[in-house]
Amino acid sequence: MSAKKKHATEKKAMTKRKKEISDQEPAFLETRPPDSIEMALHFLTFRIGDRQLAFPLEKVERVIRMAALVPVPEAPEWISGLLNLHGRVMPVISLRKRLGLAHKKAHPDYRILVMQTQNRKLGVMAEAVEEVVALSEGHLTKPEGKLKKSPLLNAVIQKNDEVYLVLEADALDTGALIEFDDPEAN
Q: What pLDDT digit, counting tens, does each position of 57-76 carry?
């Protein structure tokens, strides 16, 4: 057999094998029917003291290192100050103070969660950022009883033996926050 015929025969065999492979359905499509696939919900988990907290990930734009804040005269005590982030000024909230926990001086290892609420961007101080978790709705519990009345509490995450309070980012953006004339605030 000549080299050209041998090459042509090999090429036909490879083409036939590629067609056989492409006609097969991928195995992962057979594992679960589309109606049983649950959408995962993503949360950024963090700590304030011994409290384990979380925000829905879609509300968190980024996490940055603690930065110098400009104090605001006559602001509520839970507004730690203003942050200038790339030319955009936003209030930074101390969740420790907002949740009524004992005062603790900000540490350089703290992080600021840059959040997007319905009305503006704002920063939230976190003492430690842990991880992003993906959970099904079965891991979430809506607040009941007196907890249902809290505008800050959105849900409770039960993950292994740990419990995280999921906070409502839009509830942090109250009338007590300073209004800014930044047309790009949203």
A: 999 999 999 999 999 888 88
